[in-house]
Amino acid sequence: FTILGIESSCDDTAAAVVHIPGKGSAQILASVVYGQDGLHAPFGGVVPEIAARAHAEKLDICVAEALAQSGKTLGQMDAIAVTAGPGLIGGVLSGVMCAKGLAAGSGLPLVGVNHLAGHALTPSLTDQLDYPYLMLLVSGGHCQFLIVHGAEEFTRLGGTIDDAPGEAFDKTARILGLGQPGGPAVEREAQAGDAARFALPRPLLDRPGCDMSFSGLKTAVLRARDHLIAEQGGLTRQDRADLCAGFQAAVCDVLTEKTRRALAIYMEEQPTKPALAVAGGVAANQAIRAGLETVSTEFEARFTAPPLALCTDNAAMIAYAGAERFAAGHLDDMTLAARPRWPLDRSSPAMLGSGK
Ligand code: ATP
Ligand code: FE
């Protein structure tokens, strides 16, 4: 079957058409993403009201473009999947209202999707990955280890107790006067940097388990910057590069070491050959991908990292997660609500969604 996906939970307006020829396979027929970086740049971060208005303006165009690129009409879809949370509520509402309008007009079934489930299932868009697998979901607002037992069944093993790494990348970029989004900017600068010059912390590495912390790291970057300013009046290009390299290495060390622990826990519970997958915007980082691949090799685990464009927000992942819900008969109706918070763990009743 064929699904239209809609995503608007943060600062990307996206629509996609995904065809599911059979179980365990997927074809992306179209995936359109309108970023909003230019709109938020003057404010140094995403402004929710501006994001919501931009989503409302762009959603219709985005959907029309995705359908046109896919060569299909709305009437040829089998369902409409939309991110119903978690995220900035104004944006999520814009998407849900757009999807409801399309569903009402076409008579197509409506499927509400958890944005995090979208990220966690992304590997299946390009790889034939069997359940269960261990997922490191590492994005702008989240960082957690999940055992993905099935399309709607997740166990959380641990995660950040404060900031997400994406947020830390963005804040570090802001501290160093680099553009937003911070991840790609910091990664670019880090290439010319010496990671060993500044001693930055690796929070919580001394504690057992796979919880993580990243807020102290950005504070350490801030202190190092202020120290340089006090000493020499400003930062050279090399200072910036070294701080970026040091920051990225610290994030990478924490993620790889905690992945070792998560894999060890996972392998105690799952006797099958282990598989590790990564998703979310920070998974676009080459150093982090390489670090995780090394850990997988140590554990003789299969490693999957989606193409960069599918790591950051997109609607193909929402269409795919929606297809899985649709196949399971979990449909929504016009009462589908937009949720600012929606944890992704089977121990949480919220995960059941409004699906009937
Ligand atoms: P969430 O999915 O948690 O709601 P989000 O949707 O805003 O948050 P994503 O779109 O998945 O997050 O990821 C965006 C984040 O990824 C940003 O914080 C951005 O800086 C970061 N990011 C993007 N590319 C890179 C990169 N190459 N290296 C590190 N971080 C990156
Ligand atoms: Fe996201």
What can you tell me about this protein's structure?
Helix content is 44%, strand content 18%. The protein is built from twelve helices and ten strands. The chain has helices at residues 37-40, 48-70, 89-106, 115-121, 123-126, 165-175, 182-190, 215-232, 237-269, 286-298, 308-311, 316-327; strands at residues 2-7, 12-19, 27-35, 79-85, 110-114, 133-138, 143-150, 153-159, 275-279, 302-304. A five-stranded mixed sheet has the order 3-2-1-4-5, sandwiched between helices. A five-stranded mixed sheet has the order 8-7-6-9-10, sandwiched between helices. α6 (165-175) crosses α7 (182-190) and α8 runs antiparallel to α9 (237-269). The protein is globular and about 65 Å long. It binds adenosine-5'-triphosphate and fe (iii) ion. This is tRNA N6-adenosine threonylcarbamoyltransferase. Belongs to the KAE1 / TsaD family. Its cofactor is Fe(2+).
Bound chemical compounds: adenosine-5'-triphosphate, fe (iii) ion
Cα shape: globular
Largest sheet descriptor: 5 strands, mixed
One letter per element, helices H and strands E, the order comes to: EEEHHEHEHHEEEHHHHEHEHH
The quaternary state of the protein chains shown equals single chain
Q: Unreliable runs, pLDDT <50, ≥5 residues?
A: 347-356
Q: What is the helix fraction of residues, given as a range?
A: 40-55%
Query: What's the gyration radius in Å?
Result: 20 Å
Mean pLDDT, nearest integer? 93
Judged by helices, strands and strand pairing, the structural class is alpha/beta
How much of the polypeptide forms β-strand, as a percent range?
Answer: 15-25%
Strand neighbour order, sheet with most strands = 3-2-1-4-5
Number of helices: 12
Determine the N-to-C terminus distance.
20 Å
Count of distinct strands:
10
